[in-house]
């Protein structure tokens, strides 16, 4: 970071729903303050102005799904001093990664009448599987307070304070009642990365793991518990294949159940 | 059109290289069409002929090979492999 | 680059040069003798195959999965999907739960419209690249916009758990409904938001609007009693009046070679969905206060200038605030957060009014409660063709502009439609081809 | 201790008396399908006619036929949520012209009156007192809250399958640590509470109620009730030579066995009324001249908990983290604070999502199959 | 009192010891606090870097020096990097002292063997300085210090000076030497063979990476030194330094208050077990 001028912020998008970068605009109270500390040099959702790199901080949303993406991310990496991936798409391939388990050609034909026009790679993969990443902020969508923490940490030249323990810890810190124990509602909280503030349990539903795997998920043990609560192997395959289907721990367990089912 | 732009890009490249080599006639062009380039050799020829009118590549023979590998990094592109010129 | 000597005078030149198109969204204009021959809006947003991977999922997962299609209007996707499922199972959500669904939609309209008005569209009118830079000269105005947007987000968070991809919407109702007391918390912010919405309307009314009017076919939902959100028949100003189930008999999606976005046409012709369509077709359903506000700036149905959509959006924000206030004030807690659903095999259809227009969902559910087929037609693909047509006409009179200005102008025109790929409108690359 | 009796209807006078003295009344109430502790206004907000059933990994509410107010066991919340809250600002620092100015957070001066505290939970408070108040440095925030708290204990009339206070000798009868104690008696049409004073504060409050001397029959009934409850408890934790058991079995293969089942989700530590571990977080804003230090509940089940530079997490396997938890609870705690870290409330058994039961793990370490 | 709140302190001097190690000389900004501050060799302070965090760092200065407090810090992560960015005159937060001290009273009349590795020499500085000041109260002093590479060696001048003092021996060793290295080569534990001592009379003070200490302790025991004559300075994650946060537990010990200096006798049953 240079001392003389304000550091440059760039926000990039790959295959995604735009929700994570929208989180930045959703920082209604902090947005203008952020724009004073960081020069918004490239942020297409917010500005038509495009200032050339290099960039001090790049936030990357979305997963890599085309050959062009592959090249673009390399260029972005070269242009970025500190690169942060935001959201499930960028950190694990996102919901698009469901295609990784199937045949893309068949997928295309479900959506498009003339699939041969569509250019796409066979897989949807995280940013880190292609370039070096300085920090990953998980979540589908990310939590805007955590995003601010990441930006602050960058400005203060420190590691962001983003705990990687389970959603359960947040759930209990917030004084919520465990839905799995109190009503037998299957919940993925114990294997899911904290960050959302345990919103689902707070609304009486089980966590569906949109924040991806926590630091040491015991997916086998939790699967057994789900089975006791009535989940089938098929259900378990689906449950681990949502917004972070290609995150290593979830990928492994869904394949395990899929094999067992056969 | 997508194609028109690609062709333009190609022909410009060919013209500039042949100029460098002091030639004004291109006789043969070899390209590889990526598996995801959405272009068949016929398709390519048709479009290429359109843009080549009036250039040094006007009468060039086109050898277009369709690639099959969709995982190739260049699967979506059109690769100009080589071309032949007549030295003046 | 290697050169090879050939025996004759012919030489082969080894090149290995990869030809490609640059950019993510391109506006391609083909000119012949300085006259426009063709205009194409190409969107390279990589396809994400939602309809494909909805297959085989449980019906109950649809609201969570489809929300991820768009982070800017996830509630719209959740609303269309739950209504389609309920349609398939032959149930209808009524009373307080129905009101709460309208309320969360109000939140999304307020949030999404304010985002568009203040962060995207107004800077175009006032000559700024973005709201942040606009804030340097007009801090109070931008703060008002952010404040308004925040109220929208507050509603979504309270009802949905969080503003983006809410977690509380469910087939049959909600996972948890708020208590009356919890909901009342919104009142003061909503009162303020109503004021801000009115100010927004009057502020935007002073903008310079390009003189551009077209004869469009407007398509929107129409409900017997209310300004439409989740229910109604699909009507148009040219006499269309069909039920949601008939959608696909009249509307067809087309794929075009040059873009990843699908085009949707009504009996082969382009049509217009979104705030302006709703406004033109449902004006009399607005409350008297909203109607009066519209009158006060001379905004009347029959509007044909898409640049004035910013006014309609402002008016809809006002309407959403009014409606939200009404719902919060009259709210009586429901006895249960969700109605009973007995899933059965069948087909379900729904159209709801996303901030940017009609959003159609169709599902086939099999006897194992799994989705067998899904069809989703978002507003952006419906407006795609109209956008191209508008650009075609606009460009006819603007070709004298220098390239950068021309690009700005085109972006501005695209933004009239607030396409869901809202960022696409910020990366228009102009490609002019002269013949 | 003399016993008095008050009518069910007098309970609200108790609430009023406490409020008059500036207490915030906190007690059990129904929320999210469980009985939790929260601010309450009157006895009507208590879980009237409610009971519970608990097993390893399962908690269910159950309706009773009578209007009993305290006929259930402990719920998901421990009272530590008030005395040692999950989030606590410790101090604020301002940076002005290069100088740092530290400003201490004042301890919360709120005066709590806890209604319906069980014997095991009082024991838990006494355990936390040892952790926070027995050393040379006292916990600044805990001390003030704790000293200002008024405790209305209640003798348990209902035990669940996860209770084992009898093994830990902490219940079910209230012996000390309360200002007032209640025993709920419902006979025929009569619904009364036997009441005892445990402190001067308690006696003062009693004077504001209309009470009678307890009749011998009532006292006997109360005694019987508690004995019955005692008898309902059939979970058992053998604490004999418990320290040696752990110190000799650090490398026991059974730890691997638990690790297969344990999620390392930290629920057990969060619901435990004695677990006290915290971490800190520095929170600053964009201005750059102001920062706050916050204390948050932490758990030995998190990886960061034992992280040191160069070595990474000292306890990276789930096995070692579960071992730390249980060894600390039942053995090293005794070295550190002179008592067990476990009071037998059973919360970690009920609220472990996969129903891991520490009493069974101890039995397994002892080589007993249950 | 809120013992968790630091006091402002000023950086009086910042000295670079090697590539990634600095010694900071600090003084409390409030006169009152500085005057009442006393510590024992081996104890540590919590140093706070604005907005970033707080870390435990041992005092290396002479306890008799009431004016300044010295800390030698290796730059490894978040907080230490933030500290490294500070300059003379900048302020940081300081609270302490915490923890146990080296058994200097118990060691009186005994031979003392100081065995350190890497940056472990820093925590032992206070003890050596103390012995030097009261040289006659102690028997023979042997200082055994090992580093990975010559460039890791700090305080070289001090070591050489001490080596010249009567009844004092200094042995330095590097795992991998280069041409500039004039001392021993090999693991620090091998230095034990170089010194002559009476196993029954010696007291060992040890500080360094835990693996090194595990081996060194074994060697000491082999040489006949009693478990209760071996003292180790240990490190664990630390948040509060008051025994309230629970992070620094090692079996029954809280490293922040029972340690960091612990008698080997107390931990011998768990010291070799993984992941305790
Ligand atoms: C009693 C004691 C005395 C110490 N004395 C010195 C000394 O004199 N000189 C010196 O350079 N270092 C010393 N250390 C080690 C020093 O505390 C760590 O290097 C420092 O905490 C690393 O912090 P960081 O934020 O830079 O690193 P990061 O890797 O970013 O660590 C993140 C956090 O983890 C914790 N942490 C990481 N490593 C340690 C550790 N080894 N000990 C305790 N907490 C840790 C801290 O809370 C730290 O902020 C001592 C440690 C202890 C326990
Ligand atoms: S699914 Fe889990 S991670 Fe996602 S919001 Fe719900 S509780 Fe949080
Ligand atoms: S068991 Fe774990 S979380 Fe609980 S007090 Fe002990 S170390 Fe802390
Ligand atoms: S014992 Fe149970 S509650 Fe505790 S961490 Fe393991 S799984 Fe979670």
Q: What does it look like?
A:
The complex is a heteropentamer of chains A (262), B (88), C (435), D (370) and E (276). By secondary structure, chain A is of the alpha/beta class. Chain A has two domains: 8-155, NADH:ubiquinone oxidoreductase-like, 20kDa subunit (Rossmann fold, 3-Layer(aba) Sandwich); 167-261, no CATH class. Chain A has twelve helices and five strands. Chain A has helices at residues 19-25, 31-37, 67-79, 87-92, 104-111, 144-155, 167-173, 179-183, 199-202, 219-228, 233-240, 248-261, and strands spanning 8-13, 39-43, 55-61, 80-86, 135-137. Chain A has a five-stranded parallel sheet with strand order 2-1-3-4-5. The longest helix of chain A has 14 residues, at 248-261. Chain A is globular. The N and C termini of chain A lie far apart (54 Å). Chain B has helices at 2-20, 41-52; strands spanning 23-33, 61-66, 78-87. In chain B, strands 2-1-3 form a three-stranded mixed sheet. With 370 residues, chain D is an alpha+beta fold. In chain D, helix 9 (254-261) packs across helix 11 (318-337). The model of chain D has no long low-confidence stretch (mean pLDDT 94). Chain D is built from 13 helices and 16 strands. Chains in contact: A-B, A-C, A-D, A-E, B-C, D-E. Chains A and C meet through helix 1, helix 2, helix 5 and helix 9 of A and helix 1, helix 5 and helix 6 of C. Strand 3 of chain B pairs antiparallel with strand 2 (10-19) of chain C, so a sheet runs across the interface. Residues 167, 189, 192, 196, 198-200, 207-211 of chain A line the site of one iron/sulfur cluster.
Number of domains of chain E: 2
* Overall pLDDT level of chain D: 94
The CATH class of the largest domain in chain E is identified as: Alpha Beta
Q: What is the number of strand segments of chain D?
A: 16
- Tell me the Rg of chain E in angstroms: 18 Å
- Provide the spatial order of strands within the biggest beta sheet of chain D: 3-2-8-9-10-11-1-12
Shape of chain E: globular
SS field, number of helical segments of chain E: 6
Instruction: Using the coordinates shown, work out and report the CATH topology of the largest domain in chain E.
Output: Rossmann fold
Regions with little confidence, pLDDT below 50 for 5+ residues of chain E: none
Q: Major β-sheet of chain D, in short? A: 8 strands, mixed
User: Approximately how much helix is present in the residues of chain E?
Assistant: 10-25%
Per DSSP, the total helix count of chain D is 13
Terminal CA distance of chain E: 33 Å
Largest sheet of chain E: 7 strands, mixed
Q: How many distinct domains of chain D?
A: 2
- The oligomerization state is heteropentamer
Instruction: Name the hetero compounds present.
Output: flavin-adenine dinucleotide, iron/sulfur cluster
> N-to-C SSE series of chain E?
EEHEEEHEEHEHEEEHEEEEH
């Amino acid at each position: 970071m240079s001392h003389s001028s304000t550091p440059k912020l760039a926000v990039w998008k790959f295959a995604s729903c735009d929700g994570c970068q929208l989180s930045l605009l959703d920082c209604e109270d902090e947005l203008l303050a952020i724009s004073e500390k960081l020069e918004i040099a490239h942020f297409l959702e917010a500005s038509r102005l495009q200032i050339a790199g290099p960039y001090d901080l790049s936030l990357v949303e979305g997963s890599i799904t085309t050959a062009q993406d592959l090249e673009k991310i390399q260029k972005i990496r070269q242009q970025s001093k500190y690169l942060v991936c935001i959201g499930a798409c960028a950190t694990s391939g996102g919901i698009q990664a469901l295609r990784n388990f199937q045949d893309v050609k068949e997928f295309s034909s479900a959506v498009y009448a003339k699939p041969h026009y569509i250019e796409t790679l066979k897989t949807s993969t995280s940013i880190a599987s292609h370039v070096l990443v300085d920090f990953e902020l998980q979540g589908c969508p990310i939590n805007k307070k955590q995003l601010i923490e990441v930006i602050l940490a960058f400005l203060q030249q420190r590691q962001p304070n983003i705990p990687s323990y389970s959603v359960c810890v947040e759930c209990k810190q917030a004084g919520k009642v465990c839905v799995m124990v109190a009503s037998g509602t299957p919940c993925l909280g114990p294997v899911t990365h904290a960050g959302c503030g345990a919103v689902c349990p707070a609304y009486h539903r089980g966590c569906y793991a949109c924040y991806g795997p926590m630091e040491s998920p015991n997916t086998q043990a939790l699967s057994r518990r789900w089975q006791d609560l009535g989940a089938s192997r098929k259900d378990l395959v689906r449950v681990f294949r949502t917004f972070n289907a290609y995150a290593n721990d979830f990928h492994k367990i869904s394949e395990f159940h899929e094999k067992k089912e056969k | 059109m997508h194609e028109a732009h690609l062709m333009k890009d190609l022909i410009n490249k060919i013209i500039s290289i042949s100029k460098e080599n002091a030639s004004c006639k291109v006789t043969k062009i070899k390209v590889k069409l990526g598996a995801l380039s959405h272009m068949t050799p016929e398709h390519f020829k048709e479009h290429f002929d359109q843009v080549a009118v009036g250039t040094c590549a006007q009468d060039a023979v086109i050898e277009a090979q369709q690639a099959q590998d969709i995982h190739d990094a260049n699967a979506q592109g059109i690769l100009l492999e080589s071309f032949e010129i007549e030295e003046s | 680059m290697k050169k090879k000597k050939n025996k004759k005078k012919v030489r082969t030149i080894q090149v290995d040069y990869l030809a490609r198109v640059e950019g993510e969204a391109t506006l391609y204009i083909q000119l012949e003798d300085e006259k426009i021959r063709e205009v194409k809006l190409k969107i390279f947003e990589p396809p994400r195959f939602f309809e494909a991977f909805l297959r085989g999922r449980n019906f109950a997962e649809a609201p969570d999965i489809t929300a991820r299609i768009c982070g800017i209007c996830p509630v719209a996707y959740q609303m269309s999907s739950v209504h389609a499922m309920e349609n398939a199972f032959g149930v209808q959500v009524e009373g307080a739960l129905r009101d709460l669904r309208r309320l969360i939609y109000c939140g999304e309209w307020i949030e999404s419209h304010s985002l568009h008005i203040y962060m995207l569209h107004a800077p175009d009118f006032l000559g700024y690249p973005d709201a942040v830079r606009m804030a340097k000269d007009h801090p109070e105005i931008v703060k008002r916009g952010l404040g308004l947007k925040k109220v929208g987000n507050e509603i979504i968070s309270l009802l949905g758990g969080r503003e983006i991809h809410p977690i509380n919407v469910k087939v049959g109702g909600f996972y948890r409904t708020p208590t009356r007391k919890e909901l009342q918390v919104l009142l003061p912010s909503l009162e303020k938001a109503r004021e801000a919405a009115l100010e927004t309307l009057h502020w935007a009314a002073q903008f310079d609007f390009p003189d551009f009017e077209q004869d469009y076919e407007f398509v929107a939902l129409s409900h017997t009693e209310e300004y439409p959100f989740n229910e109604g028949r699909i009507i148009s100003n040219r006499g269309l009046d069909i039920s949601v189930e008939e959608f696909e008999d009249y509307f067809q999606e087309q794929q075009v070679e040059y873009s990843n976005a699908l085009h949707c046409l009504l009996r082969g012709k382009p049509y217009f969905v979104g705030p302006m369509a709703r406004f033109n077709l449902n004006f009399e359903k607005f409350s008297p206060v909203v109607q009066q506000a519209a009158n006060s700036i001379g905004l009347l149905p029959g509007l044909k200038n898409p640049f004035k959509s910013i006014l309609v959006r402002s008016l809809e924000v006002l309407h959403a605030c009014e409606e939200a206030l009404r719902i919060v004030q009259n709210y009586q807690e429901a006895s249960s957060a969700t109605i009973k659903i007995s899933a059965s095999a069948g087909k379900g259809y729904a159209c709801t009014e996303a901030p940017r227009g009609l959003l159609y969902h169709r599902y086939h559910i099999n006897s194992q409660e799994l989705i067998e087929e899904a069809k989703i037609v978002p507003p952006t693909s419906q407006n795609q063709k109209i956008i191209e047509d508008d650009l075609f006409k606009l460009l006819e009179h603007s070709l004298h502009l220098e390239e950068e200005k021309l690009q700005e102008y085109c972006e501005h025109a695209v933004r009239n439609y607030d396409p869901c790929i809202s960022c696409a409108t910020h990366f228009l690359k102009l490609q002019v081809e002269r013949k | 201790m003399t016993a008095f009796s008050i009518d069910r209807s007098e309970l609200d006078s108790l609430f009023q008396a406490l409020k008059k003295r500036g207490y915030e009344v906190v007690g059990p109430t129904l929320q999210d399908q469980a009985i939790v502790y929260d601010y309450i206004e009157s006895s009507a907000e208590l879980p009237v006619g409610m009971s519970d059933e608990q097993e390893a990994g399962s908690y269910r509410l159950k309706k009773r036929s009578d209007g009993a107010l305290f006929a259930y066991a402990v719920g998901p919340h421990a009272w530590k949520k008030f005395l040692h809250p999950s989030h606590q600002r410790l101090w604020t620092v301002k940076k002005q012209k290069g100088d740092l100015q530290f400003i201490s957070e004042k301890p919360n001066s709120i005066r709590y009156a806890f209604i319906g505290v069980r014997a095991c939970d009082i024991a838990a408070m006494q355990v936390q007192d040892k952790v926070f108040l027995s050393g040379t440095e006292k916990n600044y925030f805990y001390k003030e809250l704790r000293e200002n708290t008024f405790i209305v204990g209640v003798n348990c009339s209902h035990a669940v399958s996860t209770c084992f206070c009898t093994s830990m000798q902490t219940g079910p009868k209230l012996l000390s640590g309360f200002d007032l104690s209640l025993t709920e008696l419902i006979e025929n049409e009569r619904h009364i509470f036997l009441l005892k004073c445990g402190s001067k504060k308690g006696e003062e409050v009693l004077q504001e109620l209309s009470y009678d001397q307890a009749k011998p029959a009532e006292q006997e009934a109360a005694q019987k009730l508690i004995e019955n409850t005692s008898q309902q408890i059939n979970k058992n934790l053998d604490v004999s030579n418990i320290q040696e058991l752990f110190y000799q079995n650090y490398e026991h293969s059974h730890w691997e066995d638990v690790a297969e089942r344990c999620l390392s989700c930290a629920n057990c530590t969060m619901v435990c009324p004695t677990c006290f571990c915290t971490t800190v977080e520095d929170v600053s804003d964009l201005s750059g001249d102001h920062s706050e230090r916050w204390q948050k509940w932490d758990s030995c089940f998190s990886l960061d908990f034992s992280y040191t530079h160069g070595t990474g997490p000292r306890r990276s396997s789930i096995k070692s983290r579960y071992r730390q938890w249980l060894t600390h609870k039942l053995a090293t705690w005794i070295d550190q604070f002179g008592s067990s870290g476990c009071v037998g409330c059973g919360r970690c058994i009920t609220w472990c999502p996969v129903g891991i039961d520490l009493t069974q793990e101890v039995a397994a370490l002892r080589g007993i199959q249950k | 009192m809120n013992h968790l709140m630091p006091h402002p302190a000023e950086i009086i001097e910042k000295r670079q010891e090697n590539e990634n190690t600095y010694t900071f000389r600090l003084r409390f900004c409030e006169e009152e606090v500085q005057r009442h501050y006393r510590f024992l060799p081996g104890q540590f302070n919590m140093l706070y870097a604005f907005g970033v965090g707080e870390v435990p760092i041992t005092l290396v200065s002479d306890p008799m020096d009431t004016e300044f407090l010295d800390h030698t810090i290796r730059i490894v992560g978040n907080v230490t990097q933030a500290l490294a960015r500070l300059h003379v005159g900048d302020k940081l937060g300081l609270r302490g002292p915490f923890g146990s001290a080296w058994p200097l009273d118990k060691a009186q009349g005994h031979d003392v063997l100081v065995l350190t590795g890497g940056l472990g020499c820093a925590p032992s500085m206070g003890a050596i300085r103390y012995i030097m000041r009261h040289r006659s109260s102690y028997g023979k002093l042997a200082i055994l210090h090992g580093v990975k590479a010559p460039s890791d060696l700090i305080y070289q001048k001090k070591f050489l000076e001490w080596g010249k003092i009567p009844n004092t021996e200094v042995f330095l060793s590097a795992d991998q030497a280069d041409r500039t290295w004039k001392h021993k080569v090999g693991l620090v534990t091998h230095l034990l063979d170089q010194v002559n001592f009476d196993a029954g009379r010696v007291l060992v003070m040890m500080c360094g990476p835990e693996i090194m200490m595990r081996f060194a302790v074994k060697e000491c025991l082999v040489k006949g030194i009693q478990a209760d004559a071996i003292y180790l300075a240990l490190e664990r994650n630390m948040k509060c330094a008051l025994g309230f946060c629970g992070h620094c537990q090692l079996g029954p010990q809280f490293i922040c208050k029972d340690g960091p200096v612990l008698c080997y006798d107390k931990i011998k049953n768990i010291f070799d077990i993984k992941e305790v």
